[in-house]
């Protein structure tokens, strides 16, 4: 068998390998490393500069841990003129006669596809696939975090429950494809009326919820009625409208669940009284009778 030297193994290795000095300046890099990082030339560059700022900080800390002889790995994001991607870095330090002669051998594995799939799964958990607003799960998670914050800062806020009027009839008349388009347009119209700090989620088929931080009942009612007006104006030919119930939170003993229930009762009152407007809840706690008497919208 033909003798194979280190350089042959280094160049033929399917995994990316980069050798740097103790300052992370690249001394050598094999072909696979160039391929993983989508770069023509790596020699003489700083390995840290290839990655984003967060990854750069992690790398500097990472390289210091190597002095203890530990072998570690971390995920780093890189950006080049050719592409953005992720790679998993692992490294080991080879001691020289002095610190300046120390070298670090880095192994690079392309995990860009894995990270993209991970991001897609996160989006499915956090964002509604049709409208792009928060899912019910994530909206409630963020709303409950805001409730915890309220317990410290004591800043009142309001929650809104929104429901497109007679949406089942709309689906039956225009079809589900058109219904999906309507939901997308409705979400877009509503988002345009909200601040970046506001929370907006889809909590049911045609039912949505909004949390307005540091907002009074009066201002919340004005925002809600403005949304009603814009929805009616946008869908004037199809005669699509929205009804909105509002509940405020002023008490630390309150909860997001109770507030949504109160807003839902107010929403039902809107449905019974002509639809296409907003109403503030007049109660602090939703009663059992109100829940049991709720009829089909």
TrEMBL record:
Cofactor(s) in the UniProt record: Mg(2+)
EC nos: 2.7.7.65
InterPro entries assigned: Diguanylate_Cyclase (IPR050469), GGDEF_dom (IPR000160), Nucleotide_cyclase (IPR029787), PAS (IPR000014), PAS-like_dom_sf (IPR035965), Rev_trsase/Diguanyl_cyclase (IPR043128)
Residue ranges constituting the GGDEF domain according to the UniProt record: 155-283
Reactions performed catalytically: 2 GTP = 3',3'-c-di-GMP + 2 diphosphate
Domain of life according to the entry: Bacteria
EC category: transferase
Matching Pfam families: GGDEF, PAS_9
Single GO MF descriptor: diguanylate cyclase activity
PANTHER family per UniProt: DIGUANYLATE CYCLASE DGCM-RELATED (PTHR45138:SF9), REGULATORY COMPONENTS OF SENSORY TRANSDUCTION SYSTEM (PTHR45138)
Descriptive protein name: diguanylate cyclase
Naturally occurring in which organism (per UniProt): Vibrio marinisediminis
């Amino acid at each position: 068998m033909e003798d194979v030297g280190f350089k042959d193994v280094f160049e033929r290795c399917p995994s990316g390998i980069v050798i740097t000095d103790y300052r992370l300046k690249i001394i050598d890099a094999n072909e696979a490393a160039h391929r993983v990082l989508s770069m023509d030339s790596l020699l003489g560059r700083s390995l840290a500069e290839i990655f984003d700022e967060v990854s750069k900080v992690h790398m500097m800390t990472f390289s210091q841990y190597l002095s203890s002889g530990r072998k570690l790995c971390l995920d780093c994001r890189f950006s080049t003129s050719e592409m953005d991607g992720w790679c998993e870095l692992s490294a080991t330090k080879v001691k020289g006669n002095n610190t300046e002669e120390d070298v670090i051998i880095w192994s690079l594995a392309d995990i860009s596809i894995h990270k993209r799939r991970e991001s897609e799964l996160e989006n499915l958990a956090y964002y509604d696939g049709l409208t792009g607003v928060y899912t019910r799960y994530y909206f409630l998670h963020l709303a409950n975090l805001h409730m915890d914050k309220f317990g410290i800062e004591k800043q009142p806020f309001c929650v809104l429950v929104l429901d497109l009027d007679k949406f089942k009839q709309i689906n039956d008349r225009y079809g589900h494809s058109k219904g999906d388009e309507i939901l997308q347009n409705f979400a877009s119209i509503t988002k345009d009326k909200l601040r970046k700090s506001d929370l907006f989620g889809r909590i049911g088929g045609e039912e949505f919820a909004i949390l307005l931080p540091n907002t009074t009942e009066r201002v919340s009612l004005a925002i809600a009625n403005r949304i009603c007006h814009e929805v009616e104006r946008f869908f004037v030919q199809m005669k699509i409208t929205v009804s909105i119930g509002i509940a405020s939170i002023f008490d630390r003993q309150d909860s997001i669940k109770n507030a949504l229930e109160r807003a839902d009762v107010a929403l039902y009152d809107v449905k019974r009284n002509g639809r296409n407007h907003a109403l503030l809840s007049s109660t602090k706690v939703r009663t059992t009778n109100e829940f049991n008497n709720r009829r089909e919208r």
